[in-house]
Amino acid sequence: MIMASLFRSSSRRLVLASATLMMLLSSSSTTTTSAQLQYDYYNTTCPGAEDLVRTELLALFAADVTLPPALLRLHFHDCFGAGCDATLLLKSHNGTAQRDADPNSTVRGYEAIEAVKAKLEAACPLVVSCADILAMAARDAVNYTQGPAYAVETGRRDGNVSRKEDALRFLPPADGNVTVLTGYFAAQNLSYKDMVVLSAAHTIGVAHCPSFSPRLYNYSGAQQDPSLDAGAAQQDPSLDAAYAKNLTAACKPGNVASVQPLDAATPAVFDLGYYQSVAEHRALLASDAALLDDSLSGAYVNLMTNASSVDIFFADFAVSMINMGRIGVRTGTQGEIRATCQVYVD
């Protein structure tokens, strides 16, 4: 009752959200970085490496405007799969690598990373890792789409083992609630706040129909309407009706190829549009909509609908990306530096 009364008033909601934000700001991730992971790691071994990466990516982004969100997702899926070690890029003749897992079936951007790697190999052979290229590419993708510019820690080395089961076990599900999502992030030593903030990577990019169609047809979480015939299609009642109508028109049952923007407000711009969409019940994925179901994450969402919060969001996102970039890194003499990112492991 107390929480319900607070959310009836927009001004009092902002007060609650601000107080909640203070709680979130006071809780930082416990992720620590290896002593060998540092800023400007390549200053002496490959001067200008980051500028070279950025220059090559800018040309690729100009040729394909869908590439920035793809590279941001590529980095996320690599880090969560088995650590930020570029093992997602490895191939398997037997279909047993991370990239062969269902959650990675629509991941793309591999060739862009390979193009950047080729430029680096020409300048500094066997110096810059594929894992670091992924981290830099994600950073540049965010900034290219009008998001924050932030420094990236480097010094990662590449892994040489890629297992399909790692992706299946560690990648968060598109239909997870806040409790489930928090568990997946905690398994990577990331905080609750990291989860809420990194979810907003969905402010750019698209998702294929199978990722959200369960919310449109025979939604298992909905209380069955007795006026409908048994087995009749029912939608997630939390979806905005007009938005749901548009989604069903675009994604008929069985449609696996079509895509929809993750951010219904400003799908090509890295901004607060994601949180605006979530607050308006126009979140595409169930995992994004779930942020409103928890008082803490819901308060952060509501605060981020205020245009003046963009600097807070950008600062938070930069910190959480750095935290994510530390997951399971290989440094020093661990792993390897590959000449080619996409090699076969079998």
UniProtKB/TrEMBL annotation:
User: Main location per UniProt?
Assistant: secreted
Q: For this UniProt entry, which segments traverse the membrane?
A: none
Secretion signal, residue range per the UniProt entry = 1-30
Q: Which residues form a coiled coil?
A: none
The listed locations are: Secreted
| A Gene Ontology cellular-component term | extracellular region
Report residues binding heme b. Answer: H202
The answer to whether the entry has keyword Cell cycle is no
Where would I find the Plant heme peroxidase family profile domain in this sequence?
Answer: 36-345
Cite the position(s) of the site with description Transition state stabilizer: R73
* Required co-factors: heme b; Ca(2+)
Residues reported to bind Ca(2+) 2: T203, D263, T266, D271
At the top of the EC hierarchy, this enzyme's class is oxidoreductase
The disulfide bridges present are C46-C124, C79-C84, C130-C341, C209-C251
**Active-site residues (renumbered):** H77
Q: Which GO terms of type biological process are on file?
A: hydrogen peroxide catabolic process; response to oxidative stress
User: PANTHER family per the record?
Assistant: PEROXIDASE, PTHR31517
Q: What is this protein called?
A: Peroxidase
Say which species the protein is native to. Answer: Urochloa decumbens
Lineage, top ranks: Eukaryota, Viridiplantae, Streptophyta, Embryophyta, Tracheophyta
